[in-house]
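Subject: Type 1 glutamine amidotransferase structure
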Amino acid sequence: MSKKIAVLVTNLFEDSEYTSPVQALEEAGHTTVSIEHKAGNVVKGKKGEAEVIIDKGIDEVNPEDFDALLIPGGFSPDSLRKHESFLEFVRHFDTEQKPIFTICHGPQLMINAEVVKGKKMTSVSQVAIDLKNAGANWEDSALVIDESGLITSRTPEDLPVFNKAIVKALEK
């Protein structure tokens, strides 16, 4: 059954951490919706390899309309985490125990939403101390799946196992 996945993204996202999971999800028959401040904005990856035309502005979407959430890494999550509307969006997925998929610096958005305490997670190494301080059980693994449905990975090198796991998680 096809699922609808929200993707929170803004400028300076890690190019492959957006393009690769989105491609894997769409190839599996799911719909992805890019969400930023305003629909129609064009956001660019930090390596200049990818650009995304935003589908919806955060004020136009209801998290109840989505089955899962993808948060790519790069500098994008750090930029988005200062905006309460994005934090509220993330909190909905945590409260409803809908799947959240995040990689690299993506957990920064979850830290500010205060939804990591007690969860098994991984991230890029520089975010590890922030996750630990926020109460997460951080481990240095290519893929960590928490019982809440949260799936995390560290870096672009982990994308093959990350993509496989997020597609499998949506088969339920």
